[in-house]
Amino acid sequence: MIAIGREQPLVKFTVEADPPSVYFVFRVRDEMVEQLGDRLGLPSELVPAAIRCLGDDDPAHLLVLNVYRVSGLANGLRAEWSVFVADAAGVPRYMVFDARSSQTSMDPVDIITRASPVTHERRGSVIETRVGTDPTAFVSTIDVPPGDAAPRVSPAPEWATANDFIYWGNGICDRTYYDAGMIDPKQRKVPTSACTIADGTGWAELVDPEPVHVLVFEDAIELVISPWENLDRLEP
Asked: Which pLDDT score, from 0 to 100, does residue 13 have?
């Protein structure tokens, strides 16, 4: 049925628990919000959207770097820079505008994603991450403090459901189905005082230098993805 176009493929995608998936959540600078669509080359049907990350946040335009180890549809370490956009119905969605992988992979924009330098390791309580090479690398060290110094936090509902459809820069989206690891995750908010970040990427100029949140997941996230789900509905 998939081969004749009567059913969409469903492929397992697991975000591994070790090393932990980390979200670096940055606020887009006020003066950059109006330029965001042009700077990122957003498709005309998608516009930047303000969103809450955690339940007690105020909505804001956010740029996120997520670094994690994956198995299933793709394998290895991945780093994805994303923003939130509103679809045609005004619903916030997740859009990846820069993806890096430690192993050769695939995405709807480049088709073949060539392997690039991505390291992400945990040693005891310390998580070390490097994406890219100097002088344009993103480099961080997180020393996760124990107990209430890194409290467990819950995502805002719209933060989780934005992942129902994950858009790419050419307007193609992946449909995702996920377990409680995304909608009700065990995640800790690490204080910025426990993090060192040096961002040499071109994306650093779009955001405030200090992240709003640094979120460290404790468990794996199990997803099933229907890749390129809207391909047959895109305008030529």
From this structure: 80
Q: For the chain, what are the domain ranges?
A: 11-226
Concatenating the DSSP letter of every residue in 148-176 gives GGS-B--B-HHHHHGGGEEEETTS-EEEE
Q: pLDDT by residue (tens digit) across 86-137?
A: 988 889 999 999 999 998 765 555 556 678 899 999 999 999 999 999 999 9
Please say whether the dihedral angle defined by the alpha carbons of residues 84, 199, 119 and 187, taken in this order, is positive or negative. Answer: negative
Cβ-Cβ contacts under 8 Å for 137 (sequence gap 6 or more): 117, 130, 131, 198, 200, 201
For the stretch 96-103, contacts whose Cβ atoms lie closer than 8 Å and that sit 24 or more positions apart, written own/partner, are 96/166, 96/167, 96/168, 96/169, 97/40, 97/41, 97/169, 98/203, 100/131, 100/132, 101/74, 101/76, 101/77, 102/76, 102/77, 102/78, 103/74, 103/75, 103/76, 103/77
Distance, C-alpha 148 to centroid of its chain: 25
| CATH code of domain 11-226 | 2.40.400
In angstroms, the CA 68 to CA 13 distance is 12
The one-letter amino acid at 226: S
Q: Of 19, 63, 15, 20, nearest to 39 (Cα)? A: 63
Strands 126-131 and 138-143: antiparallel
Q: Is 221 helix (H, G, I), strand (E, B) or coil?
A: strand
What DSSP state is assigned to residue 230? T
Please give the Cα distance from 104 to 95 (Å, whole number): 21
Residue type (1 letter), 172 = I
- Phi first, then psi, for residue 14 (nearest 5°) are -115, 120
Q: Which helix (H) or strand (E) holds 4?
A: none
Q: Is 47 helix (H, G, I), strand (E, B) or coil?
A: strand
